[in-house]
TrEMBL record:
Domain RING-type: from-to ranges: 199-240
Keywords: Metal-binding, Zinc, Zinc-finger
Taxonomic source organism: Solanum lycopersicum (Tomato)
Domain of life: Eukaryota
Database matches in PANTHER family: RING_U-BOX SUPERFAMILY PROTEIN, SI:CH211-59O9.10
Organismal lineage: Eukaryota, Viridiplantae, Streptophyta, Embryophyta, Tracheophyta
Keyword Lipid metabolism applies: no
SUPFAM superfamilies associated with the record: RING/U-box (SSF57850)
Protein's recorded name: RING-type domain-containing protein
Length: 258
């Protein structure tokens, strides 16, 4: 899958990243998870955007925290079947090179699988997990410190990274605007992309050139199919997630991280 290059929008990939994952039952009290169902991971995703700079006085490397974000996700246990695709989307949103997506997917998949297989969780239908990302940008040679800070701050705004969802040419005849619902990501399938799950609305496999939409609950469909669906139904066709529950979009706006 070829995702948009952030550089085209004056954004850039980070120089490196760190990812730590651990179980934390305390996040159960941090968010309103009501209505999120069972057999799910409750995931609190923490992101720190850090500038690595050189202290000219003693030539030591210094890390400065520029911005932080904390948002909730809800993933079904079966999300592991699409972990690679989800990792690519997350990496692109956070400014992590797509080349690292496989490593992120492997780390997330390994940890999530260990939690599912842990005997202590055998009776659990909800597993609370923290994903803690540190996104590191290095101050460039000759770069003014304020310019470096501004560059990192620009890259914290993932609205620049998300391709726009273009409204359908014809308005719906039911007065419902499907684009009032959050579509987390979309892309057009190209040669060499990984095999994508069948669209459960039309019961057809996606073909090259067709546009796929990922909903906030991480289920994916043909873009044109989900538009028609949302005209008459406000729930995900797969998991029945209600789009009136904003938590699935990791907040109340269209940007997964703001």
């Amino acid at each position: 899958m070829s995702l948009p290059d952030p550089v085209q929008n004056n954004c850039s990939f980070c120089d490196r990243y760190e990812l730590d994952m651990y179980r934390d039952d305390n996040i159960m009290n941090n968010w309103d998870w009501s209505g999120c169902g069972e057999n799910v991971f409750y995931i609190e995703c923490k992101v720190d955007y850090v500038l690595e700079k050189i202290d000219n006085d003693d030539e030591k490397v210094v890390h400065e925290l520029i911005e932080s974000a904390v948002k909730p996700y809800v993933f079904k246990f079966d999300f592991l079947t699409q972990c690679r695709i989800k990792a690519r989307v997350i990496c692109n949103m956070l400014g992590i090179s797509e080349d690292s997506a496989s490593d992120v997917a492997e780390q997330v998949s390994t940890f999530a699988t260990s939690q599912i297989n842990d005997p202590q969780n055998s009776a659990s239908k909800i597993v609370p997990i923290v994903m803690s990302f540190t996104i590191i940008y290095v101050q460039q040679d000759g770069e003014d410190i304020n310019t470096a800070r501004a560059r990192v701050l620009l890259n914290t705004n993932t609205e620049f990274r998300l391709p726009p969802i273009v409204p359908p040419p014809n308005p719906t005849n039911r007065g419902v605007n499907p684009f009032s619902f959050e579509i987390l990501y979309r892309w057009t399938l190209k040669h060499g992309d990984p095999v994508h799950p069948m669209c459960s609305i039309c019961i057809n496999d996606p073909s090259l050139g067709e546009t796929i939409a990922i909903l906030p609950c991480w289920h994916s469909f043909h873009l044109h199919c989900i538009i028609k669906w949302l005209e008459i139904n406000h729930r995900c066709p797969m998991c029945r997630w209600s789009f009136s529950k904003k938590i699935a979009n990791i907040g109340t706006d269209n940007a997964p991280f703001d």
